[in-house]
Design goal:
Lipocalin, nine-stranded antiparallel β-sheet, 25% helix, globular
Length: 580
Amino acid sequence: MQPFFISVVIKEAYRHLYNTSIMKKYLLVVLLLSYVQGIAQQIPDSLEPDINKLFSRYSRPGTPGAAVLIVQNGQIIFKKGYGSANLEYDIPVAPNTVFDIASVSKQFTGFAISTLIEEGKISPDDDIRKYLPEVPQFGKTITIRHLIHHTSGLRDWPATLHAAGWRWDETFSFDDILRMVKQQRELDFEPGSQYSYSNTGYNLLAALVAKVSGKSFPDWMKEHLFSPLQMNATIVQDDHSQIIPRLASSYYHNGREYHKSNDALTALGSSSIFTTVEDLSKWVIYFQAQLDKKNPVFLRMIETDSLNNKLPINYAYGVEVSKINNADKDNRNSVTNISHDGGWAGFRTIISNYPDQKLSIILLGNDGNFDSNGSAKAIARLFLKEKLPLTAGPTRENLSNLPTIKGDQSLLKKYTGSYQLGEGWYVTFTLENDRMMVQANGEYKFPTDIKSDTVLWVPAYSSSVTFRDIKEKAGALKYRNIIAKRVEPITIDSSQLKRYAGTYYSEELETAYKLSVKGGKLIAHHMRLGDFEFQPDMAIADKFSSYNGTINFLKTGTGNITSFRLSNGRIKNILFKKQE
């Protein structure tokens, strides 16, 4: 496009602006200039092969993939699709392929809340019950600020609804989530005292937007953001059966082949926005422009918070704001990153912004194993080089190609036993037919490969285990970044297990678990979740764990079991009472 022609187009645009609103005037100029500049600049030729290499695993037939878009200085400098959007029909991923962006949606909720604050319609320190009186009174005030920064103490809905009987491959609706909140009996912690990522808080923020504005959350987003920015392929999905043109399917790999992953979610506010990298480029260009203009709505969006004890947290309005340092004690090379990733079903997504460098990276994938965060950092390093640490890209080790050796049996016996990786999380090594086997509680047993006198490779974990403090027995091991100490397991026989048997009911979840002893194991039965084992904690009495969470039994002074409390990740201590 020639300079003279550009000037004519811009003059015509300004003439037209007199007949549009202020916001539309600004947006039209931003979009026009971005379009004109985007035509004029492309990514340096030297970088494209490096980006292609990052996504080379999706160059094989029969794989899902990802859409990649990079914005620099307000211009789209790279956009490309890799792999397949739909494996059944062999449809390739393209820049206009639609993805469920999962928790990347939260920044749009953050924009809505910041806008309502700027308009004076709400205050971040308002009690949420002022607008949503159906939220229970917990004896502690939950404010809008608590919801924004994940410090409310409200239970996270995925684990809570699953504990109540929802299966991961079925519908989770917005109404289900709101009913769950109304049923909650206790908070996980005092508001403001802890940070615990809660999708539920952002669902309530969406409900608040609808209550205050008098419009549904999808309609508010369309009117105030998607339509003005001409994000025409973007929707907030409030009906999971809705047909969405050019929608990618999502997949997971079971170790042998890809399978479809069901996506039937309408979690307004926390997720359920469907869009393309092309539409999101309009958002990140606008986002950067508004930060540069010091627009208070957007400056507020990157305000972080602190806990009651003044400990800072880096979560702002639907985005995380962090400083990345390259081993410089004076922080001279620190880089500000504003980002959020997402994952639901087989979708893995991220928007990562480097505002000082005017760089934004958008990755939308439909492979459940796609490392969106690591891939975004690897791309950023191509541009920012020495400003980012060498660990900015995916650095997951791979010892699978090293030769496997025959281990010293007397040495391997020193490694057998159990080690504590975290709360209620143990791993046990056994020597069977001259091969070391590993089993985490609640999981299958997997074989390992011996790579040295102290290092085992676990193919099922795609990671190594290094044994440490070796004397008569190994005192600890290192797994990824975890140092796990050896524990001597508490043993419980079948007669002792029988005192835990019975039916336990939760009024909060309106569901029951029946515990019984079968084959010397404590087995839980749930009508929808089936049967699964609760294994005794290796170090704490009356505590058991499974892939559906951990339970702590409560008893009277005489030792009679009265109830248990269930915890699972982001939910804590849901009470189940033993039925007579």
